[in-house]
Amino acid sequence: MNATELMDKFRSEGIDRYFGLSRDAPPIEGFVLENIGGKWWVHFFERGEYTPVARFEDEYDACGFVYWKLHDDLSMVGPSAPEKPS
Q1: Residue 82 falls within a domain, yes or no?
Q2: What's CA 58's distance to the chain center, in Å?
Q3: 60 by DSSP, 3-state: which?
Q4: Torsion angle of C-alpha atoms 70, 74, 76, 77, degrees rounded to 10
């Protein structure tokens, strides 16, 4: 899945408020996915600060990481997330 599809998926699940596609439109608190210099960077945005979390060579891997990471984080504090495929 690409970044746009990931945002659409989060919207359909009602959790898009925890995800942003750039620093120009960060979530209130959550993950930001950016393409910087051909690499896909995942940052966590909290209290106005960006913390790098991971860097990926391709968009598909970065989106998969964000999808499962956000669901893992939410499963600790909210409704259960879908299980990871084995």
Answers
A1: no
A2: 14
A3: helix
A4: 150
**Can you tell me the distance from the alpha carbon of 27 to that of 85, in angstroms, rounded to the nearest whole number?**
27
Say what the pTM is.
Answer: 0.76
CB atoms within 10 A of CB 59: 17
Structure confidence by residue, pLDDT tens digits, 53-69: 999 999 999 999 999 98
Tally of domains in the chain: 1
Whether 86 is in a domain gets the answer no
Give the CATH number for residue 25: 3.30.160
Which residue, among 61, 14, 15, has the nearest Cα to 42 in the 3D structure? 61
Distance CA 56, CA 85 (A): 20
| Max CA separation in the chain (angstroms) | 36
Residue range(s) defining the domain that contains residue 28: 3-77
Position 83 in a domain? no
At position 86, the amino acid (one-letter code) is S
